[in-house]
Amino acid sequence: MKNPYKLQLFQNQKIIYQQKLNNMAELKKSILQKAFSGEL
């Protein structure tokens, strides 16, 4: 029998990882936008 607690931890980690990837993509987009508009 699988441990539902471990599955929940894995799913939580997956969500956090995805949020971090999204945040990094937003940061990259923001930096590029500032770079091309001459703000950097």
Which helices and strands appear, and what pairs or packs with what?
Blueprint: H1 4-36
Question: Can you put this structure into words, describing what you see?
Answer:
This protein is an all-alpha fold. The chain has 1 helix and no strands. It has one helix at 4-36. The N and C termini lie far apart (55 Å).
Determine the number of helices (DSSP H or I, runs of at least 4 residues).
Answer: 1
Radius of gyration: 17 Å
C-alpha termini separation: 55 Å
- The tally of beta strands, per DSSP, is 0
Strand content: under 5%
Q: Helix proportion of residues, in percent?
A: over 70%
Q: Give a quick account of the main beta sheet: strands, pairing sense, barrel closure.
A: none
Shape: rod-shaped
How would you spell out the order of helices and strands?
Answer: H
Computed structural class: mainly alpha
Low-confidence runs: none
- Name the average pLDDT: 94
